[in-house]
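2024-03-11 09:14:02 DEBUG pipeline.ingest accepted 1 chain
2024-03-11 09:14:02 DEBUG pipeline.ingest length=131
2024-03-11 09:14:03 DEBUG pipeline.predict start
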Amino acid sequence: MKNEKLLVAVLTYNNGADLKNLIERIPHYYPYDIIIHVDGSNDGSEEILKEFNFKVINKSKNSGIGRSMRNVIEYAKENNYEAVAFIPGNNKNDLAEVYRLFNPIINNKADYVQGSRFLKGGKIVNTDVII
């Protein structure tokens, strides 16, 4: 599987400044295609995205995370992608680490991978944790 067959989808609903911060942290050379799915945000997210050169699915009405994921999967199928990583637009994840999701799929060790910042090796960023 080649990198051009892998898609990273950033799903956002009213993430505004957090979305901008996430996008600004993407490494200059990023090996995967990125699509941003805006699910009816009314916080100016679509204006923020005009500063960047990403494919955007911009829905005027909020339909929820499940519909957002289906929209991206439909896009991925139509454009011959073989795998999709879903990342929230809340700036709590590092897109530089998406390879950790794709590697088991690329190496035929998994068909589905779910990450968690709470697992060993994960990073808890911008999240209040009560222990």
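2024-03-11 09:14:41 DEBUG pipeline.report The longest strand covers residues 6-12.
2024-03-11 09:14:41 DEBUG pipeline.predict end
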